[in-house]
């Protein structure tokens, strides 16, 4: 099969537009997902009560069902409950945010649990205010521990964003599908899509690897 690079060059502006939409979709989902993750983590740390049960159920459900099903349910089924239809972009962002939030909640909780309990107890014994204990002792250490896992989740969300094309969101996969359907040059265009995804994911993966090496060096 002849690989026609000119097809990619001709359609590069549309592919770049799709890649930009993918980044907006991923960025929005991560911001909202981080807020959800913090709330769900707080609920899980309570270990009892209604809020704990709600957060536990949310995390269990979101981590247990496919992201595509969540996206389809929000777009096609939520209007029956809310009596209002979300746009394809809003549906995709909502689904990806719920998905990211559930995983981030467990990442945050693992980071907090990794902080030695003796440090917290010592600070409290000295009369340090609880807010200061969290902001200056627990959170900074927990964040440093969770950075590799957070970066790993970012790469996962980037990959999941391609499912938004099934709802008609004009992201990278959607643009490539439309162009290839018109030109019948699927090989070139979806190869280009793969390159675009690698350009987004490889830097994040590299940062995670570098940070993990630094953590292991400090531990030695």
CATH architecture annotation name: Orthogonal Bundle
| Domains (count) | 1
Low-confidence stretches: none
Q: Number of DSSP strands? A: 0
Q: What can you tell me about this protein's structure?
A:
With 220 residues, this protein is mostly helical. The protein has a single domain (13-219), classed as MetI-like fold (Orthogonal Bundle). Helices cover 84% and strands 0% of the residues. It contains nine helices and no strands. It has helices at 5-10, 12-46, 50-64, 67-82, 88-114, 117-125, 130-160, 172-183, 186-219. The longest helix has 35 residues, at 12-46. The protein starts with a helix and ends with a helix. The model has no long low-confidence stretch (mean pLDDT 89).
Which key phrases capture this entry?
220 residues; mainly alpha; MetI-like fold; 9 helices
Question: Summarize this, please?
Answer:
The chain is an all-alpha fold. Helix content is 84%, strand content 0%.
Strands, helices and their partners?
Layout (H helix, E strand, L loop, with lengths): L4 H6 L1 H35 L3 H15 L2 H16 L5 H27 L2 H9 L4 H31 L11 H12 L2 H34 L1
């Amino acid at each position: 099969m002849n690989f026609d690079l000119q097809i990619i060059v001709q359609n590069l502006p549309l592919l770049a537009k799709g890649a930009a939409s993918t980044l907006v979709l991923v960025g929005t989902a991560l911001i909202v997902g981080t807020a959800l993750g913090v709330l769900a983590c707080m609920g899980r740390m309570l270990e009892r009560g209604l809020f704990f049960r709600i957060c536990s159920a949310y995390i269990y459900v979101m981590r247990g069902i496919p992201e595509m099903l969540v996206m389809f349910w929000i777009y096609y089924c939520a209007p029956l409950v809310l009596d209002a239809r979300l746009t394809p972009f809003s549906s995709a962002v909502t689904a990806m945010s719920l998905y990211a939030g559930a995983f981030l909640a467990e990442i945050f909780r693992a980071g907090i649990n990794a902080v030695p309990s003796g440090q917290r107890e010592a600070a409290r014994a000295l009369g340090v205010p609880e807010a200061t204990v969290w902001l200056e002792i627990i959170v900074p250490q927990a964040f440093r521990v969770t950075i590799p896992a957070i970066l790993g989740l970012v790469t996962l969300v980037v990959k999941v964003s391609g499912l938004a094309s099934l709802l008609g969101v004009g992201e990278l996969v959607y643009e490539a599908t439309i162009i290839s359907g018109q030109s019948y040059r699927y090989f070139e265009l979806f190869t280009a899509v793969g390159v675009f995804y690698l350009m987004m994911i490889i830097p994040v993966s590299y940062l995670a690897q570098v940070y993990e090496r630094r953590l292991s060096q400090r531990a030695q």
